[in-house]
UniProtKB/TrEMBL annotation:
The active site is at H306, D364. InterPro entries: Citrate_synth-like_lrg_a-sub, Citrate_synth-like_sm_a-sub, Citrate_synthase, Citrate_synthase_AS, Citrate_synthase_bac-typ, Citrate_synthase_sf, Citrate_synthase_typ-I. This is Citrate synthase. The keyword Transmembrane helix applies. The chain crosses the membrane at residues 365-388. The keyword Cell membrane does not apply. One of its GO terms (biological process) is tricarboxylic acid cycle. Belongs to the citrate synthase family. It catalyses: oxaloacetate + acetyl-CoA + H2O = citrate + CoA + H(+). Gene3D superfamilies: 2.20.28.60, Citrate Synthase, domain 1 (1.10.580.10), Cytochrome P450-Terp, domain 2 (1.10.230.10). Pfam families: Citrate_synt (PF00285). Pathway: Carbohydrate metabolism; tricarboxylic acid cycle; isocitrate from oxaloacetate: step 1/2. GO terms for cellular component: cytoplasm. It comes from Chitinimonas arctica.
Length: 430
């Protein structure tokens, strides 16, 4: 990060002013460094932090106007096509792609940590059977610090590394157990010799009485979903993890905070909303009327457009091909729900109304269809998002903890409440 130039902020009196440095990153817009502004008694006002860089980071870069997403400088399209999720995990954590030997060791270490402490299984039994899997995820991940107290020293790089491995490895196990407990199924265990995605499918769908055979196309699709959701810069949940971590909280508590934030329907619940929308439309014959209703502002179109991407979501094109691969393999192109989804897609890609407004299908539209086709219930969509995003969260958390300039997060406010006033005894109030 280098100083590019300076800007001058002048006050209304025309006499006072302050110079603020302009900082230049390796990609993206320059930023005005306002850290000294507070000394003047003034602050900036930016609800939602739409124009505020909260940190310096070298992990992920997004250009929404150009539709670009880079992990450590690598375009997401290349990683989704040539890499796998655990290699992407190594990249996000360490900054470089691994050598063959490093990859082998990393994969082995993750798989060695995927079992849960046996007493955690008792923890699951304390929930109601109909508890939402995300509620279970928040609680169990937050409780991991009670079971793995040997990796809680955030100032020890080795502790941070072990905590990262444990979180990446155990989140699929926790998510699968939450699903099985919800369905009244016996808890399952990871299986040696399977990939990260294969193991998750095995833990979700295997039974004690029958060998579960993993479909390689399904496993590859799931691995790609994990890769596409591994990180997305300073979004709401990542910012939550960073803010929690700035207080010195342990990594398990910070990731639990991220999961809680992700649970919101405006964040991690987007692909779940796509399936609910499809259910509400009901039949392919009603698609044209529904899309007209979207134009008339009578209906909300879920899974189209994106707050960040003003062009095509770069992840969507990858997920679109994956979606069709899965539907073809499973013979589901004629399924009523998926025919309905494809009819929506066709209109959105051809109708000038949607094209002009850049309301293209986003990654959530296609990932929701894929997960549904695989047999994963809607209630598990956000937990899958959470387990995929864990590596991004822990990478940002670790980057922040290792930054010597880190300070506890303390946003300012524009106070609009009552001015100072004196207490009035209750018998004298009118």
């Amino acid at each position: 990060m280098a100083e590019a130039s300076k800007v001058t902020l002048s006050y209304n009196d025309g006499q006072n002013s302050i110079e603020l440095p302009v900082l230049k990153g390796s990609l993206g817009p320059d930023v005005v460094d306002i850290r000294t502004l507070g000394k003047t008694g003034m602050f900036t006002y930016d609800p939602g932090f739409l124009a505020t860089a909260s940190c310096e980071s070298s992990i992920t870069f997004i250009d929404g106007d150009l539709g670009q997403l880079y992990y450590r400088g690598y375009p997401i399209e290349q990683l989704a096509e040539h890499s796998d999720y655990l290699e992407v995990c190594y990249l996000l954590l360490n900054g470089e792609l691994p050598t063959p030997e490093q990859k082998k060791h990393f994969d082995y270490t993750v798989m060695r940590h995927n079992m849960l402490h046996d007493q955690i299984h008792n923890f699951f039994r304390g929930f109601r059977r109909d508890a939402h899997p995300m509620a279970v995820m928040v609680a169990v991940v937050g409780a991991l610090s009670a079971f793995y107290s040997d990796s809680l020293d955030i100032n020890d790089p080795r502790h941070r590394e072990v905590a990262a491995f444990r979180l990446i490895a155990k989140l699929p196990t926790i998510a699968a157990q939450a699903y099985r407990y919800n369905r009244g199924l016996p808890l399952s265990y990871p299986k040696a010799g399977l990939t990260y995605a294969e193991n998750f499918l095995h833990m979700m769908f295997s039974t004690p009485v029958e060998e579960y055979k993993v479909n390689p196309i399904t496993a590859r699709a799931l691995d790609r979903i994990f890769t596409l959701h591994a990180d997305h810069e300073q979004n709401a949940s990542t910012s939550t993890v960073r803010l929690s971590g700035s207080s010195g909280a342990n990594p398990f508590a910070c990731i639990a905070a991220g999961i809680a934030c992700l649970w919101g329907p405006s964040h991690g619940g987007a692909n779940e909303a796509v399936l609910k929308m499809l259910d509400e439309i009901g039949d392919v014959s009603k698609v044209a009327d529904f899309m007209q209703g979207v134009k008339d502002k009578r209906y909300k179109l879920m899974g189209f457009g994106h707050r960040v991407y003003k062009n095509m979501d770069p992840r969507a094109a990858i997920m679109r091909d994956t979606c069709h691969e899965v539907l073809n393999d499973l013979g589901l192109h004629d399924d009523p729900k998926f025919k309905l989804a494809m009819a929506l897609e066709k209109i959105a890609l051809e109708d000038p109304y949607f094209i002009e407004r850049k309301l293209y299908p986003n990654v959530d539209f296609y990932s929701g269809i894929v997960l549904s086709a695989v047999g994963i219930p809607v209630s598990m969509f956000t937990p899958i998002f959470a387990l995929a995003r864990t590596v991004g969260w822990i990478s940002h958390w670790s980057e922040m903890i290792g930054d010597p300039t880190m300070k506890i997060g303390r946003p300012r406010q524009l106070y609009t409440g009552a001015p100072r006033r004196d207490y009035v005894a209750i018998d004298k109030r009118k």
